[in-house]
Every structure is written in structure tokens, then in C-alpha cells.
């Protein structure tokens, strides 16, 4: 039986609820604290899946112990998932693996990026932004910056063909939600005639930097704002001695094209899935741990995304 697979943990986990943001939404989630690290458990349709809350910034030091603690906890999740953070991507464990596809930019120096990793078209776009009068600089998280963020967020309810998470939020909400991680983030702002028209949040994960928010006003898209922001981000990575920059998942899309033109390449990292209940084991066998969309044929998924984009275009009008 599943209980016999996991020995009793060396210490009792602490179970509690916590208010946090998931996909831009404020939620109260069930958390389990084990050895000073917090794991949260979210229902994904038919199953609950637990993962390390700070998995981008921390490693699961002893997966066997964590699995044991979760399996013996009250209201245990159906599946536990964890991964190996880049650049340590050679699988270490025998658990079931699926590969995360990431957009990764190796960073040595800004000059190397400028001369070797991007092409002339990208360099021309950066020059275009500078000629248009844009200024990109390190920013301070003050009231003026928060007001500028809020204006950018509320410019349109739809971005990248889907509903935008932060649309409709006021300044106080933005200030509260985005002030939580300033201790590990650099803020980079793009300004046009004194107006904040785009910004980047760059988080320091030790071995790499993570692009959180990377956004600009659509009405200024003709000024190549994002290209200039990316150039400043690479410069900041060099300054912080971050050897890699990660910009979410690798994808074939307009955003994917921007990543590619900015020098990013696809890299794989192992993600492990460990079933803790019979339901979790069945969900893993059926592929439901990734959600219903993961089992839909890619051709149909593409059509559904196109329909969603058209729907949101109508909604935006």
C-alpha cells in the first residue's frame, strides 16, 4: 500500500493556510512547513499537487525526507513535484521525470551579448529606441513608480491573447503585491518624456536571474521599448554576476520570437513527479497532473488558443 512506501518523518510538519498570489490572483492556500521550507498544495482539477513555494530560489535538499513528511501529513496532497534548478540539469533521482522547457540566455558580458548573441536587426531596434528618446535606468519602488506600473497594467485587459492578470488593480493593490520581493529584485524602468512606459522586475536566484514582469505600453510599441529594456537587463545581469537569465518557458509564439531574437535558447530541466495517493498515481498514469489541456491534442490546443484570442479581441473592443 502507499503508506508502506514512505517511512514516518523525523519531525512533524506544520500545516497552515496562507494568503498569496497564484497566477495574479489572491488566494488562501494550504501550506506545509518542513525543515524551515514552505510547500504549498493546490488543487489542479482532479488532484492536489504540492511543490516548494520558493522553488525558483531554493533547492529541495532531501527529497526522500520531504516525500515522507508529505505522505504522512494530515490531508496529504496527491502528488509532490520538484525540479532541479538550472544549471544543474543532469537528473539525480530515480523518480518519474518530465522535462521543463525554458528560455535561457547565457550571460558573460554585455559586449559579448551585443556582438555575438544577437543579430543586427536586434541591435538596430535598440538604437531605434535610443533615437526615439527613450531612457532606460534602474528604478526606485516609490509612489511615482507604482502609479506608472498601474497605468501600464490598466492599459488593456488582454495581453498575449489572454486575459491579463493585473488589469483592474489600483495603486494600493499593486504596491502591496509587488513590494513583497524587493529584497531580491532589480527594477528597470523605461521612460519617454518623463513617463514610465515599460519596466522589468529582475529577480536574483543565485545561479541565474529570472525575468518576472517584462511589460511596456502598447501605445508606444513603435519605439522598440522592449528591446531597450532587454539590453539594460543583460547589462544588469553582468553587474550582478548572474551567468544565466531565464525568461519563462520556451514557446513558438510572438513572445517566443522576441526571446529568440534577444539571444535566448531552449534549455531543459528535469521536473520530478511523485504520487502520494492512489488518486495521484492514477492521475500521473493518465497524464492529468498537467491539467486537462495537457491531454488535448496540440492541433486542437492551437485552434482553441486562436479562438480565445479572437474572443478577447472582441471583448477588448
Protein described:
- The protein has about 325 residues and is an alpha+beta fold.
- It has two domains: about 1-85 and about 275-310, no CATH class; about 105-265, 3-Layer(aba) Sandwich (Aminopeptidase).
- Helix content is about 30%, strand content about 30%.
- It has helices at about 65-70, 110-115, 120-130, 145-155, 170-180, 225-240, 255-260, 280-285, 300-315; strands at about 15-20, 25-35, 35-45, 45-50, 80-85, 95-105, 135-140, 160, 160-165, 185-190, 195-205, 210-215, 245-250, 265-275.
- It has a twelve-stranded mixed beta sheet, sandwiched between helices.
- A hairpin with a 2-residue loop joins strand 3 and strand 4.
- Helix 3 packs across helix 6 and helix 4 crosses helix 5.
- The longest helix has 19 residues, at about 300-315.
- It is globular, with a radius of gyration of 21 Å.
- The chain starts with 13 loop residues before the first strand and ends with a helix.
Indicate the topology.
Layout: E1 14-22, E2 25-34, E3 37-44, E4 47-52, H1 63-71, E5 79-83, E6 96-106, H2 110-117, H3 120-131, E7 134-138, H4 143-153, E8 158-159, E9 162-163, H5 171-178, E10 185-192, E11 195-204, E12 209-216, H6 225-240, E13 244-249, H7 254-261, E14 265-275, H8 278-286, H9 298-316
Parallel strand pairs: 4-5, 12-13
Antiparallel strand pairs: 1-2, 2-3, 3-4, 5-14, 6-13, 6-14, 7-10, 8-9, 10-11, 11-12
Helix pairs in contact: 3-6, 4-5
Amino acid at each position: 500500500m502507499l503508506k508502506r512506501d514512505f517511512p514516518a518523518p523525523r519531525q512533524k510538519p506544520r500545516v497552515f493556510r496562507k494568503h498569496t498570489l497564484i497566477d495574479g490572483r489572491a488566494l488562501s492556500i494550504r501550506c506545509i512547513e518542513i525543515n524551515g521550507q514552505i510547500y504549498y498544495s493546490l488543487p489542479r482539477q482532479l488532484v492536489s499537487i504540492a511543490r516548494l513555494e520558493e522553488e525558483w530560489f531554493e533547492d529541495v535538499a532531501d527529497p526522500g525526507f520531504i516525500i515522507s513528511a508529505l505522505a504522512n501529513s494530515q490531508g496529504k496532497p496527491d502528488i509532490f513535484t520538484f525540479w532541479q534548478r538550472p544549471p544543474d540539469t543532469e537528473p539525480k533521482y530515480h523518480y518519474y521525470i518530465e522535462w521543463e522547457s525554458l528560455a535561457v540566455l547565457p550571460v558573460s558580458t554585455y559586449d559579448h551579448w551585443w556582438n555575438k548573441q544577437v543579430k543586427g536587426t536586434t541591435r538596430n531596434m535598440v538604437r531605434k529606441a535610443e533615437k526615439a528618446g527613450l531612457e532606460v535606468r534602474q528604478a526606485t519602488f516609490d509612489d511615482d513608480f507604482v502609479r506608472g506600473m498601474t497605468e501600464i497594467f490598466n492599459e488593456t485587459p488582454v495581453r498575449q491573447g489572454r486575459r491579463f492578470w493585473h488589469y483592474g488593480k489600483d495603486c494600493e493593490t499593486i504596491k502591496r503585491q509587488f513590494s513583497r520581493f524587493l529584497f531580491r529584485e532589480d527594477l528597470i524602468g523605461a521612460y519617454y518624456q518623463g513617463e514610465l512606459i515599460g519596466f522589468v522586475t529582475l529577480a536574483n536566484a543565485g545561479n541565474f536571474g529570472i525575468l518576472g514582469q517584462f511589460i511596456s505600453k502598447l501605445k508606444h510599441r513603435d519605439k522598440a521599448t522592449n528591446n531597450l529594456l532587454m539590453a539594460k537587463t543583460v547589462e544588469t545581469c553582468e553587474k550582478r554576476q548572474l551567468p544565466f537569465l531565464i525568461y519563462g518557458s520556451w514557446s513558438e509564439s510572438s513572445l517566443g520570437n522576441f526571446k529568440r531574437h534577444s539571444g535566448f535558447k531552449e534549455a531543459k530541466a528535469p521536473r520530478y513527479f511523485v504520487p502520494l495517493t492512489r488518486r495521484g498515481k492514477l492521475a500521473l498514469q493518465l497524464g492529468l497532473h498537467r491539467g486537462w489541456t495537457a491531454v488535448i491534442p496540440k492541433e486542437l490546443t492551437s485552434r482553441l488558443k486562436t479562438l480565445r484570442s479572437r474572443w478577447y479581441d472582441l471583448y477588448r473592443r
